[in-house]
TrEMBL record:
Residues 7-126 form the Purine catabolism PurC-like domain. Residues 342-400 form the PucR C-terminal helix-turn-helix domain. This is PucR C-terminal helix-turn-helix domain-containing protein. Pfam families: GGDEF_2, HTH_30, PucR. It comes from Pseudomonas cuatrocienegasensis. Residues 151-287 form the CdaR GGDEF-like domain.
């Protein structure tokens, strides 16, 4: 459980603080309070801070306040608090309020006669309490997701005491933020760490906002580069709605996360607490497919896997590896020794359902070039594209190969 901007406004002793803009983002989680002493905040925040602006140590005119609002949005802070009074910042300009509302930054006004020590103490105490409750709630959810418990009845009693709404059937959404290694290759360590923390905070905020909109909220479970959300899904219509809204989330977030990328695997819906571990397994299989197949645009549901579900049930990995080696080994070996063109050609041919013109267009090569490559594939593999059994073997081997070599969508 996290402390949100709305929770801060409801804390005892802080009734004189007012939300002036950004109501739709008031569920942003607050990691800690930060008092801004410099002209800008971009270099000094990592995401999730509730930033306080006093005007004591630096003049805060309209232009500067507008800059702070925009930097608060760029750095995924929880919100911005402007202290107003007769001595420093007399009032918040209308343009600043309008900009905060436009870009969705919670903008709070705090009167100077409300002492900062009172505010920071109230927030600090609430943060500690929220963190303790949040750890307990996450621990219960992790036990259910791992199937790591002796008595489900006892665990559900604990969940009830922690106010976890587990009566609603759920669908597991497993997110992965991929590409942190690329960040550190392309940027300085300091810049990469800043970008990584900002991306994680932005993702956390957006996911929690989506969960809040769905109702019957359960906390996000964060595990390294993975986030697990338990979405309400009692009916098939709920699953369809979850898929649409999360696809929109990926499309909105990924341009801002670059060069990192967010992938998502979804289980089927209708799972109760006793089936959470099974649902997480479904979401894991779907996530692998989302990462492996560019045409899925970064998202896959378990009920869309088809034959991939059967392949995932084969526990002896050596059987799958041997099948790939028997069918495609010669092609993979040839690509490793020369320019890798045979496996991409095979993929394009299947993706275009054997249409030579479309496959050649996909590869940006002449149709005659594609025909020569296909002939070479048949010669090396010993398979014929006109034989239905050979086509089936190649198709399944290609699926296994792609699942074992996840690549980011183009």
């Amino acid at each position: 459980m996290s402390l949100t901007v709305a929770d801060v406004l409801a804390l005892p002793g802080l009734a004189s603080m007012r939300l002036r803009a950004g109501q739709r983002a008031q569920d942003n989680p607050v990691r800690w309070p930060y008092v801004a002493e410099n002209a800008t905040i971009a270099e000094w925040v990592m995401g999730g801070e509730l930033v306080f602006v006093t005007g004591i140590n630096h003049p805060r005119d309209e232009a500067n306040l507008l800059l702070l609002v925009r930097q608060a949005h760029e750095r995924a802070t929880a919100g911005l608090v402007i202290l107003t009074g007769a001595e420093y910042i007399q009032a918040i300009p209308d343009s600043v309020i309008a900009e905060a509302e436009r870009i969705g930054v919670p903008l709070l006004e705090q009167p100077y006669d409300l002492k900062m020590v009172v505010v920071t103490q109230a927030i600090g105490t609430a943060l500690v309490q929220a963190q303790m409750l949040g750890r307990s709630r996450q621990h219960v959810l992790e036990q259910l997701l791992d199937g790591d418990y002796q008595s489900l009845e006892a665990l559900l009693q604990r969940a009830d005491s922690l106010r976890l709404p587990l009566q609603v059937p759920r669908q597991v959404a497993l997110f992965k933020l991929q590409g942190s290694e690329r960040l550190f290759l392309e940027q300085t360590p300091e810049q990469a760490e800043q970008t990584l923390q900002t991306n994680r905070q932005r993702l956390q905020q957006q996911l929690e906002q989506v969960l809040a909109e769905r109702g019957e909220v359960l906390p996000l479970v964060s595990q390294g580069e993975h986030w697990i959300a338990l979405l309400p899904a009692a009916e098939h219509a709920d699953e369809a709605h979850n898929r649409r809204s999360l696809m929109q989330l990926l499309e909105a977030l990924n341009p801002h996360l670059a060069p990192q990328r967010l992938f998502l695997g979804l289980s089927v819906g209708g799972h109760g607490p006793a089936q959470f571990a099974q649902a997480l397994g479904e979401a894991r299989q779907a996530l692998v497919a989302a990462q492996s197949f560019p045409e899925r645009l970064g998202l896959c549901c378990f009920n869309e896997l088809g034959v991939i579900e059967l392949l995932g049930a084969i526990r002896d990995r050596s059987l799958l590896d041997r099948f790939v080696a028997d069918v495609l080994g010669a092609l993979i070996g040839d690509d490793s020794r020369h320019e890798p063109v045979l496996m991409p050609t095979l993929e394009a041919w299947f993706q275009e359902n054997g249409n030579l013109a479309l496959a050649a267009q996909r590869l940006n090569v002449h149709r005659n070039t594609l025909s020569h490559r296909l002939q070479r594939i048949e010669a090396l593999s010993g398979c014929s594209f006109t034989d239905p059994h050979d086509r089936l073997n190649i198709s399944i081997a290609l699926l296994i190969w792609r699942l074992s070599s996840p690549r980011s969508p183009a």
